[in-house]
Each structure stands twice: as structure tokens, then as C-alpha cells.
């Protein structure tokens, strides 16, 4: 049996510049972190006593006798890529899918990590991220960028640069006390709205000329935000103000990024004392992140009392195998 644990991520700056169509021409960068909410992938070979050869538990329950019968496209293509057969796979997540936290990519990274371990192989964080990108973007042809897979594989608070079909991960070195205060001053709220990020991303690039101008401005804010994090002489509240700037830019990149309800929530949060915030992920729903000083957080909670508050802390581990118990495996010659 193999169990992997893979974190979800929250993206602060640069989202959208991690899409190859943009960064291969202009370069791209994001600042993001992973936090202490995870997905768990449990994989083992099926005992040879059932009238099916694989059992897959995710948001649905699948029992199949052939890989082509698998409905979940990500599971099917990851199994095909690694020649995986006759397994029982279960997925569990601390937070709901399609909510802007890179849950699909965390699942891809965690599953590929588990399949490698099932074959008795280890893989570097870079190889793991590259493989997840290949499955989601090249094989499944899903719209989107590369940051989710990289963040899930590596973990931690990072600046990730994208250029010429590759990426480089730079951990952001920040004073421990400053990092703790940043963590404390960020608040996460669940809107209850789920959506498919690939559809939002496709709409975002529908008007490429206007979008490119905005993405270049968002890319500039990555440098500014990194300066705030690294320089203890710059007030940390500037990070919150930059979040407000990047959200206003992001809203202009696509019609589906925001809506009247989300705008109303955002404006109420600013009025209650938040310095800035943003919808996480591609937009359209999911989780709202706000920067708010501790002394004003009770007022923010009251203003957004209809939304669920999700406590969190930063994490640094990335995807890893948390349980490893290899099995002897002999393929079945025929289905019972």
C-alpha cells in the first residue's frame, strides 16, 4: 500500500503569466505558497478475488475491467502513462474540488507520486511537476498554466519563474517572524461556488491583445511583492495593498473572473478593514483570500458572516509518500 500526501496551494501574484502562450514570449512569474490542507491518494494492488480488476474511489465510485472503461480522465491517463493495472485507488481531499486551490493538479501530482512508488521508483520534485504538467496540459489538453503542479510538488512559499518552456523555483527567504505575521494576517473564506478553471482560462485568453497588456502589469507586481516580503523595512501592509492591485487587474482579463455577488463580498471586506484580497485560482468562485491586520479580523468575519472561514497555516513539504508498504504483484491472467 502507498499513501501520498500533497498540499493545496494559494497563488498571490502573477497568475495567468504561467500559461505557455504568454510566458514563452514575455516570461512569467508567480508568487504562491502551499498550506496545511491536503489531498491523500491511497493505492494498492487489488486482491485477485473480485469480478472486476480495478476499483477507483473519487467523487464517484468506479469498478472496471479495462483501463478504457475508466470515466475519470486524469486517473485513466496517469494509469496509462505508468502502465498501472489492477489497483484500488482512493482520493480524499481536505477541501472541495474546483475552488481555485489547484486541487486537480495536487491530485495529479499525488497520484503520479503514488504510481511511481508502486513501481518501486523515486522521482525528483521537478520531474514530478513536469509529469503532472504533461498529463494535464499535453495529454488531456486542459486549458491552464503550470504553477499548480509546480507548487504542489515543491511546497513552500516560492517565486516560480517560467521561461522558454521551463520553470525555476526560488524559495522566498523571509524573516521567520515576518512570515508568521503574514500567515496571521491572511484570511480565507469559502464562497460555496464551484467551477471548472479550464473554462475560465479559455475565456481569459479570448481577447488576447487586451489580456496581454494586463498580464504584463500583473507580472510587474510579482517583483514588487517579492521586495515587500524580503525587505523587513517595508511595512507588511504593502503586501495587502498589492493584492488589491493585482485583483483589479485580474478582473479585467476575462468576463468570467468575477460577478456581482463576488464584487459585493469584496467591497464589503474592504469596507470592514481588509487592505486587499483576491479570488484564488482562475476566478469565478471558490475561495476568497484577504489581507487584514489581526485587530480588524473580527470585524471582517462579521461583515462576511455568511461565508465559511477556513483557518490555515503555511506548509513547506510539498508532495511526499507518507506510507510505503510494497507488495508482491503478479498480473491476473484472466478476469474472474
Task: Give a brief rundown of this model.
α2 runs parallel beside α3. It contains eleven helices and 13 strands.
Number of helices: 11
Secondary structure tally: strands: 13
- DSSP strand content: 15-25%
Q: Please report the distance between the alpha carbons of the first and last residues.
A: 23 Å
Helix content: 25-40%
Report on the structure:
With 336 residues, the protein is an alpha+beta fold. It is 39% helix and 24% strand. The chain has 11 helices and 13 strands. Strands 1, 2, 3, 4, 5, 6, 7, 12 and 13 form a 9-stranded mixed β-sheet that branches. A 4-stranded antiparallel β-sheet has the order 9-10-8-11. α3 packs across α4, α3 packs across α5 and α8 packs antiparallel against α9. The longest helix is centred in the middle third of the chain and has 23 residues. It starts with a strand and ends in a 12-residue tail after the last strand.
List keywords for this structure.
4-stranded antiparallel β-sheet, 13 strands, 336 residues
Describe the SSE topology.
Elements: E1 2-13, H1 20-26, E2 28-45, E3 54-57, E4 61-64, H2 73-81, E5 87-93, H3 103-118, H4 125-139, H5 147-154, E6 158-163, E7 166-171, H6 176-185, E8 186-190, H7 197-204, H8 208-230, H9 237-251, H10 260-271, E9 276-279, E10 287-291, H11 297-303, E11 308-309, E12 314-315, E13 320-324
Parallel strand pairs: 3-5
Antiparallel strand pairs: 1-2, 1-13, 2-5, 2-6, 2-12, 3-4, 6-7, 8-10, 8-11, 9-10
Amino acid at each position: 500500500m502507498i499513501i501520498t500526501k500533497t498540499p493545496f496551494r494559494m497563488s498571490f501574484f502573477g497568475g495567468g503569466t504561467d500559461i505557455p502562450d504568454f510566458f514563452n514570449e514575455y516570461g512569467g512569474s508567480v508568487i504562491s505558497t502551499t498550506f496545511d490542507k491536503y489531498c491523500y491518494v491511497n493505492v494498492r494492488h487489488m486482491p485477485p478475488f473480485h469480478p472486476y480488476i480495478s476499483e477507483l474511489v473519487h467523487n464517484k465510485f468506479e469498478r472496471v475491467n479495462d483501463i478504457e472503461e475508466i470515466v475519470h480522465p486524469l486517473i485513466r491517463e496517469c494509469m496509462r502513462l505508468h502502465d498501472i493495472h489492477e489497483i484500488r485507488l482512493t482520493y480524499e481531499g481536505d477541501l472541495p474540488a474546483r475552488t481555485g486551490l489547484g486541487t486537480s493538479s495536487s491530485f495529479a501530482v499525488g497520484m503520479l507520486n503514488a504510481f511511481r512508488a508502486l513501481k518501486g521508483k523515486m522521482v525528483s520534485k521537478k520531474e514530478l511537476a513536469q509529469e503532472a504538467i504533461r498529463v494535464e496540459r499535453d495529454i488531456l489538453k486542459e486549458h491552464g498554466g503550470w504553477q499548480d503542479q509546480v507548487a504542489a510538488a515543491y511546497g513552500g512559499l516560492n517565486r516560480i519563474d517560467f521561461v522558454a518552456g521551463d520553470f525555476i523555483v526560488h524559495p522566498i527567504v523571509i524573516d521567520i517572524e515576518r512570515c508568521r505575521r503574514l500567515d496571521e494576517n491572511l484570511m480565507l473564506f469559502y464562497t460555496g461556488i464551484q467551477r471548472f478553471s479550464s473554462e475560465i482560462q479559455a475565456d481569459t485568453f479570448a481577447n488576447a491583445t487586451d489580456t496581454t497588456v494586463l498580464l504584463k502589469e500583473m507580472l510587474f507586481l510579482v517583483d514588487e511583492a517579492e521586495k515587500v516580503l524580503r525587505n523587513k523595512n517595508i511595512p507588511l501592509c504593502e503586501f495587502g495593498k498589492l493584492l488589491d492591485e493585482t485583483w483589479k487587474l485580474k478582473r479585467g482579463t476575462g468576463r468570467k473572473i468575477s460577478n456581482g455577488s463576488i464584487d459585493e463580498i469584496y467591497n464589503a471586506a474592504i469596507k470592514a478593514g481588509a487592505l486587499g484580497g483576491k479570488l484564488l485560482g482562475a476566478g469565478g468562485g471558490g475561495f476568497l483570500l484577504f489581507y487584514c491586520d489581526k485587530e480588524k479580523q473580527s470585524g471582517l468575519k462579521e461583515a462576511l458572516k455568511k461565508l465559511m472561514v477556513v483557518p490555515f497555516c503555511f506548509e513547506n513539504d510539498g508532495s511526499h509518500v507518507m506510507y510505503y508498504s510494497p507488495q508482491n504483484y503478479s498480473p491476473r491472467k484472466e478476469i474472474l
